[in-house]
Each structure stands twice: as structure tokens, then as C-alpha cells.
Amino acid sequence: MPKDGGIGADTKRREDVRYLTGSGNYTADINAFGQAAAVFVRSTVANGKINAIDTSAADGMPGVLAIFTGEDFVDVGGNPAGWLINSRDGEPMKEPKRPVLAHGKVRHVGDAYAAVIAETVEQARDAAEAIEADIEELPAVVDMAEALKNQTLVHDEIETNQCFDWGWIEDNRAATDEAIRNAPHVTTLELVNNRLVPNAMEPRASIGTYDRAQDAYTLQTTSQNPHLTRLLISAFVLGIPENKLTVIAPDVGGGFGSKIYHYGEEALVLAASKKVGRPVKWVADRTESFLTDAHGRDHVTKIELACEKDGTFIAFRTETMANVGAYLSNFSTATPTFLHGTLMAGNYTVPNVYVNVKAVFTNTAPVDAYRGAGRPEATYSIERVIDKAARELGLDPVEVRRKNFVKPDQYPFASAAGLEYDSGNYDALMDKLEEIIDRDGFAERRKASEAKGMLRGLGLNSYIEACGIAPSNLVGILGSRVGLYDAATVRVNATGNLSIMVGAHSHGQGHETVFPQIVGEMLGIDPASIDIVHGDTSKIPFGMGTYGSRSLAVCGSAMVRATEKIIAKAKKIAAHMLEASADDVDFADGQFTIKGTDKSVGFGEVALKAYIPHEYPIEDIEPGLEETAFYDPANFTYPSGAYACEVEVDPETGKVRIDRFAAVDDFGNVMNPMIVTGQVHGGLGQGIGQALLEGASYDADGQLLSASYMDYTMPRADDLPFYTVDHSQGTPCTHNPLGVKGCGEAGAIGSPPTVVNAVIDALQSGGKNVTHIDMPLTPSRVWSAMNNA
Amino acid sequence: MPTVSMTVNGKAVSGDVEGRTLLVDFLREDLRLTGTHVGCDTSQCGACVVHVNGEAVKACTMFAAEADGAEVGTIEGQANADGSLNVIQQAFQDHHGLQCGFCTPGMVMSAAALLKENPKPSEAEVREYLEGNICRCTGYHNIVKAIMAASGQDVAIAAE
């Protein structure tokens, strides 16, 4: 049993109180003294040549303080891609500049080419409407296959729309081709991983403040990753020295990937603040969010699975086109490659894997990592094609998976896609899943559905992900331009309470509650006496932010290491206080004791001694009790799971209703089951949303048709079921101190194929030879598939 | 600019507003009650739900001037008199019915309105009532559970 409030306890979240009483402090809630407002002027065409921008009418309008255009930023840098991908021929990827404001050309609807700073947002908006832009509309290219013909270029200077043509692992290509040629059975599936809009409920917002006295800047912004934002603005975009720039991400209303990245609006409000001498605030409206937040997914894939007649896998071969949109967002080149291709062996001992990914520029918003980031795309391809293969071979889809699972005695397991899985037990997950979903009772339930004219289907599948991102050495070899360690400072205050400064940023994950559970248990003190400080680069040593299910596995590990240093130093102080050797000091439950004696001293007394070092061995031990650790993981972590979905399909309308959904995940050790379960719920909501409801839709001219909640179907409460979530089958991660794997993305990774597999199963049971429907499985798509089959 | 007067969370307030000023902007910018959030421009998301004369209203669908003379309740006025969380707020915390917290004020205000008109809603009724409130974090599971619990009901869910 977990200790009260310690590791493994369902501790209620302390951050809830401020959110539940309206006391949260989101960026849009902050009004800086004397602030002015920024409004951006955005392209209404997907591809256009900027001939002239006439700001003269707007200049003199009431309240207008300054107007910026792309011309003002030609001498500063661009917003870079954080990951260099080399093509199969060794050529580096194409990296066109991504400026603060568009200059020369606009490349997607929503691309900002001017900004107005005014006393009020209404005045800024009025003036923005008075800006006359002569933008010559050019043909747009939206479809990836069309873009690869290079007839219309998104970036003239790179002379191609192909960003890269990547092979993984190129040396395995010939063997994979050969294996597929000679295989007794090959199943082929062409599928689309639909483009999604992350839709954090809080729209992006930024406040830039220039302090003339210090010649320093502060940016308050909606970020998952304030240190990276500071680094990018400093080193690449505006050249503000890091010591002169503070980035603060206060309460942030969800991110799901879209707030990892640095956006041009952040640089603009900083530059504008210096120019007008006042803080400058910008808050996106929802349509701006749809048009300019980095979108997710958008892959078109052909996957082949070669296998024996008994279902033993021989090879997976994948060809994917991945949309990167009009500009490279910070993680956009890593997402379809090293977060996707490396997972293409799935949970399986398949000996041959080859992945080809062509990344394509189009006149659409940038596409980047969205919850799961590459791993949902990999899982969807693998788990859909396995179901199709099982059906073709007349085999049970679960048995086929079990036949090919990596077995518990095979770890560490070198996958054919280049990763080394450290732990797992996929059969145990599937056993638990079949029990929870009551697979044995399915036939009866199907009969009952059929009796009322409905079709019932069951989908079961596995997933694996690589998260706890990431070992810096490894990702450096793979092209990352940053390290992916994290950092924490544990500060024991003189009176024995703690402030812990962490590089991870919490925007719904509950770090403020969970991190104290861990350190409280390590130190034997009340977690309530520990506070977490996050989201402020002036207070925190460094950090790489929160994404890729990394906060606990990487930053939490740094925090554990720093706490271990605290304990080591405190032991020395305690040894002095107890007149013993440090080697003889034991520490448990908040008490330092001397082996074989009844002498003891409490943690609080030791802390006080560190700050009031009277009778203190000042020659040997520094005063104070504060330690910092940077932690760089030895490997990715490998959460895995088995998911089941049971649906009813109305053959009259094609409407899909989810009857039940169960998720059995291996997250390793679990620190707070309540929060972990909540993370899975949220991921499932997004994954089911992708499968049934959501899709960002551009027309051929590059107009985003789904640019509001009237048009983009967000899952509502009545679209989703209660979920059954289990994490009793965890196998601890072998290489981090807490044995944790990460739970943030799992639900969104594992669930889309589960839903689609269930719907296909339902249609097949109704005698319809439907083998695939592209997501989202709207009633019209399902009905059409049934009626065309 | 016309002056509007109303009672907000039991306190008489007034302010000069433009005709185009929305109630949500009056609450957030003039009264600095920033717990009422703006998550969209089309009255879909429900992050701005408040109570006007006891009814749940999206504060972005109403001009401040239209609320002249009204009794307005916001999330800031929901806690008990001693500052402790009210039954609905407490249920949201107990059942982990919130993550990033951005949709939460609207959810709590909608839940209060629902339970006022239907003290023992079924799961389906809760889900249907929340049509106008979007949450991206929770998959709704724990929100529905929290509202059921706040109504004195409980839902048995296996394997939790």
C-alpha cells in the first residue's frame, strides 16, 4: 500500500483549487501595466506574392502606436527546425527560412504579414482592417502527391516541394524487399492518417515586455517549453542574449504538442515592446488558432505486411508521404521520421522493417508533433494491416499478434527498426484486456445487437511507443540539434520546507501534486511542505519542457537525482551533529540515525543547521542545502498496451456508437494512479475523436474549411463512453530511478486503430466486404463504404 | 458610453461600456473576474458559461448592456462562504474532473445549472447537457463522474 500522499497514492491535485475557483493565471488573464494590444494581419490566400503593403491609412488611426511588416524582420533570423534529417542520397533536408512575418510571399491562409500595435485591441483590429495589401494570388498546392510534381512551389528558392526523402533503415531496404518478394502472403493497405488540429482549449497568447532600465525582455506566453522558446528566440530569431530574456509560461490551458514550438507572434510582441516602450499583448482568437497552430498527423501511407500462412511476420514495408505544411515547425522533421519510422516493428519480433518517408511542403499550416507524434501514425499502420492480414489468412487477430509478440525473456530486445526495448509483457496486457472486455461474451452481445438490426464489432490491438524523450547522444546521432535531458533544483529552505524548480512544464498533467509525492516519500516529509516551481526561465536551471511523455521519466529523474544529492549532503551534516561518521548514518522516514545507537536527528533540524551553521564543519561542508541535477536518459522508455473497442454500427445510417472501450497499459511504476488514469482518458478522447469525428479539411485552393468549432468536430461528452482503464500489468523501466515509462500520449496512440478495427469487424459481420475506411469514420463514410461494398 | 449596472456574485457593480462590449469582456476586463474564459469565437466551447438570473448563459453571446440590472454569477462566486469548495467544485477535485483547468469554470457553471433543473440526472442526461461545453483534456469521463457524484449518485466503473 502506498504511504499517505507518497508514491502510488491517489493524491488529489492541489492545483485544482485555483482552477475551480477562477483563480488560475493564464496568459490572457494577465494585464501588464500600460500594455498595448497587438493584432496580426493574416493572408486570406494560400499562396500569394506580396507586391506592396500600404499602411498609410492605418498609421494615423486612433490609438495606433506602431505597424510592422515582414520588411521589419528581414535582418533577423528565422524560426528553425530542431532536427536535421538527411535524405536517402545523403543530401540534407531543405530548410527554407520561416520569418517572424511573411516577406515577399505568403504561403498559407493565416500566414501573418503585418501586425498592428494600438492602445486597445479594438483599435488595433480597426487599423488592421485599414491596411491595404496588394497580394497577387498564385495557384496553391495542397495535395501531397500533387506537390511532389513540383509544378507549383511553396518555396521558390529551394526549387522543390520535397523537404526530404528518408529511408529507415536504408541498409535494411534490400533485405526487406527480398523478404516481401519471397513471402507466402503479403497484405497491402493504403491509408490516410487524417490531419488534426490539436485544439488546446486555451488559445495561444503572448505578452512581450521590454525593460529599458535593464535592457532586458520578458515574454509571458502559452508554452509547454519556455526554455526552448528562450533558446530559439536568443540563438536563432532575434538574437536577444539568453541572460536578457526571461520566458514565463504561467498557467497554460492544454498544449498537446501545439505549444511546444516557438511561434512568430512571440518574437513580434518582444520586438514591438521595445519599439513602443510598453508591454504588448496578443491573444489569438479561435480561428487564428485553427489557421496557425501547428496541426498534427497528415500522413498518406502504403504499408505491406509479409507473413507466413500461419501468421508469422516476415516484414513490414512502409511508404509514407508526410505533410509538413508551408514552413518547418520546430519538431516537424523528427515527427514523421524518428518518432514514426523507429516504431515500425511494433510489439513484434518481425525481422525485416523498412520505412520510406517523403516530407512534403504544401500551402497549408505547419504540421508538427501532436499528442503521440509519429507513434500514432506508426501504430495505426501496423495494427490496421495486421487485422487485415489476419482476416485474409482466416486467423484470429489476437492470436496473430500473440504469435509475433516480443516475449518477456527477450529483453532487452533489439527491434528491426533500430530501437532497444527494455521491458514489457505484451501477452499479460492482452490477457488482462480480453478479461476486462469480456471477449468470451462478445458473441452473445453481437447476437443481441443483430436482433435489433444493428451490427456489432470488436477491435483489439496492441501498441508500443518510445517516449521519455530522449537520450541526447542517440538523438544527436539521429539529427537532433538540441539535447533532450532535463533539470531540477531541489532547494531545502532553512525551516525545512522545499521549493523544487523543474524544467518540465505542467499544463494539466498535475506535476505540482505528483512531484512532491515523490520527494516527500524520499525525504520522509509531508508533500504539502514541498512546492514545485515551473515555467519561468529566471527561476529554473534549465529544461526541455513537457511533451513526448517525458516529464516524469526525464525531469522526474533529475529531481530524484537532486534529492539523492540532498540526502547525501544532509547525511554529512547529520553525522557531524551526531558526532559519527557519515558512513554510519542511515536515513529513513525523515530521521537520520546512527547504526547501532539510539541517536537520531530529524530532517528539519539538519536543514536548519545547514542554514545556521554554528558548530558546523565549515571546512568540509558548505552551508546551505540546495542541489541541482541534470538527467540525460540512457534510452527511450517503452510504454505499451492492449486496447479493445466494441462498437455498434447502424446499417441504416452508418452511425457508429462506441459501446465499450478498455485500455490496459504498461507504464512501468505508477506514481499517482488517479492522474495516470486521467491521462489515458484524455488520450482516448482524442484518439476516438481522430477515428470518428475530427479532420482538418482544406479545399483545393488552400482554404481551411474546418476553421471553427462549427466546422471541426471536437468530441463532445455524448460522443464518448466511460472507459475501463487498467495499469496493473506494469513492467518497470529498467534504466530510470523511478522505473516509470510515461503515460501522456498512450491513449491517443493506441486507440485509433482499435476503433477502426472494430468498425470493420462490424461491417464484415454484416456481410459487407469492407476492408478499410479512412478516418474519420463519419456516418456518411461508413454508409458509403457499406453501400459500395 | 452607456453605464451598465448589475449584481455580480452578490455585489453591485457598474461600468461604462461600449455597445459592442460582450458580457464576458465586461467581466474579465472591467471587473477583472478572469475565471470566466474565452475559448472560441463562435459560442461553441462553453468556457465562458456564467449564470444570468439563475440561467446558464454563454457570456460571449450576450452584450454587457443586455445584462443591465441582472443577477450574474461567475466561477469566482461559487465557493462556500467560508472559502471551501462547494459540492460541485469538490466533486470535480475528488474525481479528477479537470486537468488544464481552462474549460473548468464553464463546466462547473453548466453542471450547477443542470443540477438545479435536474437534481438526479442520468449519465446520458449529463452527457447531453454538456453538449455546449468542450473539454480537450479529460475525455469527459471524470467530468461526468464528478457531476453524477455531486448529485449524490455514483457510477460503478470496473478496473479503476
UniProtKB/TrEMBL annotation, chain A:
Keywords: Molybdenum, Oxidoreductase. Residues 21-139 form the Aldehyde oxidase/xanthine dehydrogenase a/b hammerhead domain. InterPro entries: Ald_Oxase/Xan_DH_a/b, Ald_Oxase/Xan_DH_a/b_sf, Ald_Oxase/xanthine_DH-like, AldOxase/xan_DH_MoCoBD1, AldOxase/xan_DH_MoCoBD2, AldOxase/xan_DH_Mopterin-bd_sf. GO terms for molecular function: iron ion binding; oxidoreductase activity. This is Carbon-monoxide dehydrogenase large subunit. It comes from Yoonia litorea.
TrEMBL record, chain B:
One of its GO terms (molecular function) is oxidoreductase activity. Keywords: 2Fe-2S, Iron, Iron-sulfur, Metal-binding, Oxidoreductase. It comes from the Bacteria. The keyword Cell membrane does not apply. Residues 2-78 form the 2Fe-2S ferredoxin-type domain. PANTHER family: OXIDOREDUCTASE WITH IRON-SULFUR SUBUNIT (PTHR44379:SF5). This is Carbon-monoxide dehydrogenase small subunit. It comes from Yoonia litorea.
